[in-house]
Design brief:
Layout lengths: L1 E3 L2 E3 L2 H4 L4 E4 L3 E7 L2 E6 L3 E4 L5 E6 L3 E4 L3 E4 L5 E4 L2 E4 L4 H6 L4 H10 L9 H5 L4 H10 L4
Antiparallel strand pairs: 1-2, 3-6, 4-5, 4-7, 8-11, 9-10
Length: about 140
């Protein structure tokens, strides 16, 4: 830093190195310049961006969440215990950062809450079908 006439002046050689960053495999960096999204870097390696941009880290690794067992009733009122293993990964790093506050907590809260779509039916539990046949049945049904 050099002081000219009482005002500090920053030389460009002191600012330029701040723009270099490393992106590891299965990782992304979201670039934000003065509060505005300017892009994402998903390619691993040594990169350079505007030195004033904030480079936020987002992991793109596959993760899983194990929910606790909850007691529910099936369509006939029989009590059963269910649990879920949710396997997930971030696809769009910018949306993961800007659409929700903490995307890890968001996934955990959605997986813990039992909703109507997650409740099992006796029909699906009694029949043993492959995933492909179950998907074909759902496409044929008029409700969904």
């Amino acid at each position: 830093m050099v002081i000219l006439g009482g005002d500090p002046v920053v030389h460009p050689p002191m600012i330029l190195p701040a723009g270099f960053f490393v992106v590891q495999p299965n990782e992304a960096r979201v670039l934000v310049l003065f509060g505005k999204y300017i892009g994402s870097v998903r390619d691993s390696g040594f990169c350079y961006a505007n030195p004033f941009a904030i480079k936020r880290h987002v992991s793109l690794r596959i993760r899983n969440f194990n929910s606790e067992k909850i007691k529910v009733n099936d369509l006939h009122g029989n009590p059963i215990e269910i649990a879920a293993v949710v396997v997930w990964r971030v696809v769009d790093s910018a949306r993961a950062l800007f659409d929700v506050d903490h995307y890890e907590n968001f996934i955990a809260s959605k997986a813990r809450r039992p909703s109507g779509r997650w409740l099992p039916s006796t029909r699906m539990m009694q029949r043993t079908k492959t995933f492909r046949r179950c998907a074909a049945d759902r496409r044929k049904s008029p409700s969904g």
